[in-house]
Write a structure and sequence with these properties.
The protein has 196 residues and is an alpha+beta fold. It is 38% helix and 29% strand. A 7-stranded mixed sheet has the order 3-2-1-4-7-9-8, sandwiched between helices.
Length: 196
Amino acid sequence: MKSGVRALGIAESFRGREGTTSTLCGVLTRASRVTDGFVFGNCTVGGTDGTDAVCDLFDRLDREDVRYVLLSGLALAWYNVLDLRAIYHTADRPVCSITYEGSENGLEAGLREAFSGAALEERLATYRRQPSRRALDVGGERIFVRSVGLSDGEEGEVLRAFTPEGGRPEPLRVARLAARAADRWKSDRRDSETNR
């Protein structure tokens, strides 16, 4: 892959269910590991607005040179389940969701414990529409990938190109760090305003 190819990595910082929003960060990174841009947003803890929030990040970044969209996880902010096909149609770019732990039963058991009625059915319907997850070895570590717009072989090529070491692609590693820093900054500002 050419060193100038760019991926938008999106990760979150989520401080548990006590907060109302999760901080999202999108980082535009070249395959050469050069960072070209940042964009920040939020989604609701326990909500259903994660897909719209991710699409909004892509739109606000407003970069035609994004070649791939990489997502850290499939469910943000306490089961705010993403719809990968909807993100793919909005971005008109291949989309990969990456998780780092295996699971026999996926998210269904957790969703059933956390929600009931219409809230559960809405999340289950979104979850069941997603492509199946498969294991992939990247940088000597096993990750789990769902994608839209890429074949199995292409998934590995893209993720290995953006992963200099370990199993976390660089756009997602940097996005996670930036989201955590922004989340801490917002929390510190709230604390200082409360103590005035």
